Amino acid sequence: MRTARTLYRDAALADARSDRLQHGLSVLVEDGAIRWIRPSDDEADPGPAESLEIVDASGATIVPGMVDAHSHVTLPGGAHWIDRIDDSPEVLLDVAERNGRLLTAAGVRWARDVGAPRVADPVDGRIRALSLGVRERWAARAGTPHLRVAGTWLDRAGTLPPAAHTVESHDADELLANALVQLDEGADLLKLYLDGPDAAVSPWAADEIGPVVAAAHARGIKVTAHSGRLNGAIEGVRGGVDAIEHGFELDEAVAGEMAARGTFLISTLAVMRSWASFGSTTTLPRFASDEGRGRIAERRARAEESLRIAHRPGVRIAAGTDFGGGSLRANQLAWEVEALVGAGLEPWEALAATTWRGGELLGEPAAGSIEEGGPADFFLVHGDPLSDPAVLWRVWRVAWAD
Ligand SMILES: [Zn+2]
């Protein structure tokens, strides 16, 4: 039997555990796993030359395969991202395939899908979140992204448009019942939508969220909460959710409680940068008008401040693009790393947010890590991402898809 071995020789390594770039390393990959990592001037025996590929990786940097901690794999993004949720399931499954290729080419190994329309899947015929079938089919195909999916959005009736195909609830009993249905349908985590039809009030209070969290935790499932506003973050954190998505309006009190409880913040700051770019590339008034530009700039400043408020007491930060459920595209996680650095994180902390912190969030220790014996889930870029996040756009090779 032919053994697939690849020796990446004389590369730098950025593991995002510190701000220190390591130089002159060789990595032997065998059958998709990292056999060893050694100094290039003191390599171990890579085995017979036959069936060994030696890659001169000099000048490149090895980076752990990234985790997009907030994504929507069945949706395309763009300036009309909300309209696209109502595209036919056939079209959305094609979108997912294209997104899978974009993720891989961008160095993203894992995607945490936090919401897909609940519709009939044209492949398996089941009515459930479309991402669940994609997850199962990708799991059987080598080289596709690893997915963990939340099913659909659990929102309060009247919050999101019917065309988004969410699961709505009118009261706390119905919310709990709907959450259990999501679990029965195969969700890996639950996603509560804590922006409500009334912007001034969280749609659910902590004592209504608590039973959902308890039911999920009893099955070993985590619960996360979309929170664009402060009121939802406060109730969600008190209700015991495991993570706050976006967290665009946090304050010191809720950040302190998140740090104490170990609640994650999943940042999606690049969304506002994307909207600002639409001020130039579209004529849509919400982006291109003076008023629209001003509102976006204001929200961006508040969201970046919120990120700093969370970072100060040590809230664990993982990061995502929100591609599909927002306006970014599937191959733009580097934009979020740039946004985190722009907001004040050190480049290594921002890279950690898209690598091993995402692994922590998922409860997948190998995700976003590079270790002997672990999967060969790394990619190579040109430049030092520990000093300049923009080098993450310069992907040269993706080890797990070579
Ligand atoms: Zn989203």
Strand content: 15-25%
User: How would you characterize the largest beta sheet?
Assistant: 7 strands, mixed
Q: How many helix segments?
A: 13
CATH class term of the largest domain = Alpha Beta
Helicity, in percent? 25-40%
The poorly predicted ranges are none
Mean pLDDT: 97
Q: Examine the secondary-structure arrangement and name the CATH architecture of the largest domain.
A: Alpha-Beta Barrel
What's the CATH superfamily of the largest domain, by name?
A: Metal-dependent hydrolases
Bound molecules: zinc ion
Task: Describe the 3D structure.
- By secondary structure, the protein is an alpha/beta fold.
- It is built from 13 helices and 19 strands.
- The chain has 2 domains: 93 residues, Urease, subunit C, domain 1, CATH 2.30.40; 297 residues, Metal-dependent hydrolases (TIM Barrel, Alpha-Beta Barrel), CATH 3.20.20.140.
- 35% of the residues lie in helices and 23% in strands.
- The strands form 5 sheets. Strands 1, 2, 3, 4, 5, 18 and 19 form a 7-stranded mixed sheet that branches.
- Helix 11 packs across helix 12.
- The two termini are 19 Å apart.
- The mean pLDDT is 97.
- Zinc ion binds next to loops.
